[in-house]
Write a structure and sequence with these properties.
The complex is a heterodimer. Chain A is an alpha/beta fold. Helices cover 41% and strands 32% of the residues of chain A. In chain A, helix 1 packs parallel to helix 2. In chain B, the strands form 4 sheets. Chain B has a 6-stranded antiparallel β-sheet, with helices on both faces. In chain B, strands 8-17-16-13-14 form a 5-stranded antiparallel β-sheet. Classes of the chains: A alpha/beta, B alpha+beta.
């Protein structure tokens, strides 16, 4: 798994690439929490996610819940088919805020 | 007449001196256990008394029959000289238990001239008397040359020397007997100490509560039997009982070694079958001629949800007895005794295990000292007698039951024929949890054979870093049988989640212990088996979480059930661990998932 991060107007944009599993998800969790804990809005671009398991999903859930407590935004964007399938199986596809592209996500957070 | 009187006076005088010398020597010998020094003193008195140039005392080691010079006086110093039994004049005298008088040494065929050659001394005549009492000869006294140059020893001298020698012999024999007695006493003390140390190998009574109890009664001070038990950190109880072939100190030593191996290895090797394999390998490595150990080892699991499962392995020992619902069941030996057959190179030589669900019953393990022990009637107790007594005292405590068994074969405790050792374990004290999920014996994994064509057998350490490879294997086998992409991804996810559960819940975190994954193809479905080697996880423990409750974690089990058509938690047929059987129905002709 590769994580690329950039910050645009106080929004932190993550771009994930590769496999998010039991081995790699702790890194993702740490990176997400670092930003949501200080109240930053976060977008997670998941176009390149070839695989994600429950531990990866759990990291997203934890970050999402923290951001809600902080009233900051947390959006998943450009979700790959395989990642979407797992979100559906976990019945979380209706829980997260999901946008088709990262630009859409940025717009939704700025509006 | 004058001559005769003088001779008589001289004889009387000589008898008088002889008697006083004898009395003096006997008193000296009687008062001391230090024979060597007393012999040295006696030797110089005898040599002077006999007017000899020199004298020597030889003693024979009765075990090796080597004759050694232990003291010398006068002419030559030959202390330490060793002779064979029958060698030389002295050796011959000892061997024949007869005195020797040699007046013409040079022409005597028995004369051992080496000493003269070495010392430059010229031996002219020799007098030699055996140190013997009746038939037992322990050495000899030898005198050389009369002091007066032209005089030779005569028959009278020999008679006198023989009398003195037998007195000395008595002292030597007494001293040897005294030494043997002291040695015997010492050995007895040491055996008592050894027996005391052995008793401390046995666990303290009630070390594991009233659930397990053992008795060991040794026929002699030390025992060739042992039993032991201890609690594992997870609450299970490890127990073992063994019987070393033979009796006495060598059996006791092998028992000590086996008992130590059991306690030491048992702390890490938590499969009784594997443990016996390891002990066997150790005992074979340091083979003790023809000695072997019969042994039973087992683990009792009183934890909630584990139904008191007992895993037993039996290495050539008497059958183990289970008393349950008023009936007896026996579990015989599955393998040879320990210490006979070394494991094949590269194999662990593990013994087979049986699983016993005691359902509140009790388990009894005993040595043949119990079944072969004589009862009051004069007949051996036999297995029937054991069962009879256990039935009679079924409602008593384990302690009472075992006391009754041992009493039956020791009407006279001092006359035990063989060591008697009994170990008993009861499942009656285990609290029954109503809420526990029942996994009956019928739910062990019997389906392995019928589960179809081989696709994958993969064993890997329970570490996150190995999951990528495990997923690749599963993906490969799904694609091989023609699964569509969605099914394939779903299956990969579900198996991954199941592996994660093993790492988290069974092993309690990443571990070098293994996960065993097998995939089989049957018509219309794929069967996955995931096996671990961790202590049993009660099936109710792993539940899918309520999806309404949105929180991180606990999703894995839900995902498995969402994807798979059948999920079963089973018990492996062999050994410890948990087994998860997952079935996914596949329809390779339709495009799309078979389960929505």
């Amino acid at each position: 798994m590769k994580i690329e991060t950039k910050e645009v107007n106080d929004i932190v944009i993550f771009e994930l690439d590769g496999e998010v599993d039991l081995e790699t998800s702790p890194t993702l969790r740490k990176n997400l929490l670092k930003h949501v804990n200080v109240g930053k809005s976060v977008i997670v671009g998941m176009n390149g996610v070839a695989y994600i398991d429950s531990s990866g999903i759990a990291s997203l859930v934890e970050a999402y819940q923290t951001s809600r407590r902080n009233s900051s935004g947390f959006v998943l964007a450009a979700i790959s088919d395989s990642a979407m399938r797992v979100l559906q199986l976990a019945r979380l596809d209706k829980v997260f805020t999901i946008q088709a592209t990262i630009d859409d996500a940025v717009r939704s957070l700025n509006s | 007449m004058h001559m005769e009187t003088k001779l008589n006076e001289s004889i009387a005088f000589s008898i008088d001196r002889q008697v006083s010398l004898l009395a003096n020597m006997t008193a000296q010998f009687a008062n001391t256990l230090n024979v060597d020094e007393t012999l040295r003193n006696a030797l110089c008195e005898i040599t002077n008394y006999m007017n000899a140039e020199g004298g020597a005392v030889f003693l024979m080691d009765e075990a090796t029959q080597i004759i050694t010079c232990v003291a010398c006086y006068g002419a030559t110093e030959i202390t330490g000289l060793k002779l064979e039994y029958g060698q030389g004049i002295v050796g011959k005298s000892v061997a024949s238990n007869q005195g020797a008088l040699v007046r013409d040494v040079k022409n005597d065929p028995d004369f051992y001239g080496a000493v003269d050659d070495q010392t430059g001394f010229t031996t002219k005549s020799i007098l030699c008397a055996p140190l013997s009492v009746k038939d037992r000869c322990v050495g000899a006294i030898e005198l050389v040359n009369k002091k007066k140059a032209d005089e030779l020893f005569d028959e009278t001298d020999l008679k006198v020397l023989e009398t003195l020698a037998s007195s000395a012999a008595l002292a030597v024999i007494n001293a040897r007997m005294a030494r043997a007695l002291v040695e015997q006493e010492r050995v007895k003390r040491e055996l008592e100490l050894a027996a005391e140390i052995q008793r401390r190998f046995l666990p303290d009574a009630h070390e594991a509560g009233d659930t397990i109890f053992g008795i060991n009664k040794a026929a002699r001070g030390v025992s060739g039997d042992f039993f032991d038990y201890f609690k594992l950190p997870d609450g299970r109880i490890y127990f073992g009982l063994g019987d070393v072939s033979g009796k006495g100190i060598n059996a006791a030593l092998l028992m000590s070694k086996t008992a130590s191996l059991f306690r030491c290895l048992g702390k890490t090797v938590r499969d009784p079958g594997k443990l016996l394999g390891r002990i066997n390998a150790e005992l074979c490595e340091t083979a003790t001629h023809g000695m072997f150990v019969t042994m039973v080892a087992g683990i009792y699991d009183p934890r909630p949800g584990c139904e008191g499962l007992i895993r037993l392995a039996n290495a050539g020992h008497e059958p183990v007895l289970l008393f349950q619902n008023d009936t007896f069941k026996t579990y015989g030996a599955d393998g040879p005794p320990l210490g006979i057959v070394p494991p094949l190179p590269g194999e662990d030589g593990a013994y087979d295990e049986v699983q016993v669900f005691p359902q509140g019953g009790s388990l009894y393990i005993y040595t043949d000292g119990l079944t072969e022990g004589y009862t009051l009637t004069g007949h051996p107790l036999e297995a029937e007698g054991v069962q009879h007594i256990l039935r009679q005292y079924a409602h008593e405590s384990l302690t009472t039951q075992l006391d009754r068994l041992v009493e039956a074969v020791s009407p006279d405790p001092s006359a035990l024929r063989d060591d008697v050792t009994v170990l008993a374990l009861t499942d009656a004290l285990r609290p029954v949890h109503d809420s526990e999920t029942k996994v009956g014996q019928n739910e062990t994994d019997h389906g392995a054979e019928q589960d179809g064509d081989w696709l994958i057998d993969f064993k890997f350490p329970a570490r996150p870093g190995w999951m990528k490879l495990a997923r690749a294997c599963v993906r490969e086998s799904c694609q091989k049988v023609g699964c569509n992409e969605t099914d394939t991804s779903d299956i990969v996810l579900a198996v991954d989640e199941a592996c994660q559960n093993v790492i988290r819940h069974a092993y309690g975190g990443p571990s070098d212990e293994e996960i065993e994954l097998t995939v089989r193809q049957r018509p219309g479905r794929l069967v996955f088996r995931l096996r671990d080697f961790a202590p049993m996880v009660p099936p109710g423990f792993i539940k899918p979480r309520n999806l309404e409750d949105i929180r991180p974690g606990g999703l894995g089990t839900h995902l498995i059930q969402e994807v798979m058509d059948d999920v079963q938690y089973l018990r492996p047929t062999q050994g410890e661990g948990n087994l998860l059987r997952l079935v996914k129905n596949i329809d390779v002709n339709k495009k799309g998932t078979s389960k929505q």
